Amino acid sequence: MANQKFKAIVIGGGPVGMYLAHALQQTGIDYVLYEKRDTIPPPTAFGIFLWPHGLRLLHQIGLIDQTEAISSLLTKISHVGPTGDVVREYSDFSLLELGHGYPVRMFDRASLAQMLYDNLRDPTTHIRTGKQLVDIQRRAGGVTAHFADGTREDGSIVIGADGIWSTARELMRRDSPEGLFDANPYLAGYRAVFGRAPLPTPRQDASSPVLEPEVQFEFHRDGALLQLFTSKREVHFIIYMRKKTEPRSEQENKAGKGGGFDPNIDDTDAAIAPWLDTRLVEGLTFGDLWQTRAAAGGADLDEGSVGLWSWGRTVLVGDAAHKVLPNQGMGANGGFESAAALVNQLTALLRHEPHPHAAELRQAFAAYQAERQGPMAAFQRMARDELDGWTRDGGPPLDALRAAVALIGPMVARAARLDAVPFPDERMGFAPWVYKVPAEAARAAGGGPKL
């Protein structure tokens, strides 16, 4: 058993789990991914946003052309007052591309998932769907994952990429000393209604404008915010509502109606009623958009970070370890980056020890968390501060909020990438990437080993 080839068992086939599969594939680490749903492309009601550092990671694994083909740019932000008039507009998204070489792009989650799946080598061998994790057992030199249908998988480690309701995390807590893991790692101070609808098109008998594509719109109210993101084909929307009670814990959410959906907003008609008459542009209200919705839902918005991201041979990535509010769109980007940082630690370890012991894995997992916990805590705080400002009674302090997001650029520039994957065509802007592939950095300095 101890001499079997190192293999990672990945739990969760969301965007982070699928990127992780590519990162493992690119670095030559064997893996198998288990997803509890019957299909990888999920039927979801909201889009996903990739910032320059997220797109850079997809470019490094050879997917930039496919990525651009299935996404839309975000070019500017438009803040709209109660009468539908634009009160502030700026093109910070375009500045990000000038700074880092990559723009901000919006995706339909199903299209992104399908692209990631289709571009794996031999996905039917490595991806298993309809498999609900129920147990992780340690054995000599590895672990065995057990699934509800009786399936079992032997491997070297388990990587939990299974989101905020992570079963892998719950099994870690079960097997660890009492008090080491908080049963309620996340809190929810906001709730939301979200969905998508077709992008309105002009009527033949009307000259009034419709929603401009590839723009982020912000509609502000005391204690609430309506965000619209327009692609070339769709409008994705999310209504944030500041909760009037104390934030609920993850366990309280999970025990509520709908497996995490807030029973107070399951009646979405009541939740969106105050917004129906909101004028988006001349001749178009949110109510008009709502009537054409393709999908919609409601949920509490969890946020926070788990105190310890690993136990034994199990380690967490993405929302299973760190959850940020969605208003800045940093969740998937942070998950991709954490996945890359974890794979970097594994490749460095396996280069020197093909069959690492548990103690060596603990060191690698600890180094991964030490690298990523600080940046994710910062992104979490920035998203919360921004949403608090956007929903402030009396209106948002737009100048202050815009100044605060100046922190994002330097953090993006310091993003991780895969150390063992050459990246000669990496795009650059006026704010160069801080971290280079070690071999490339050594060659730039005039010497050093080649990977």
From TrEMBL:
An MF annotation (GO) of this entry: FAD binding
Pathway field: Secondary metabolite biosynthesis
Keyword match Oxidoreductase: yes
The keyword Flavoprotein is annotated on this UniProt entry: yes
Signal peptide: none
Domain of life: Eukaryota
Key words of the record: FAD, Flavoprotein, Oxidoreductase
FAD-binding domain residues: 7-173, 309-353
InterPro entries documented for this protein: FAD-bd, FAD/NAD-bd_sf, FAD_mOase_fung
Obligatory cofactor(s): FAD
Family listed: Belongs to the paxM FAD-dependent monooxygenase family.
The protein's name in its UniProt record: 6-hydroxynicotinate 3-monooxygenase
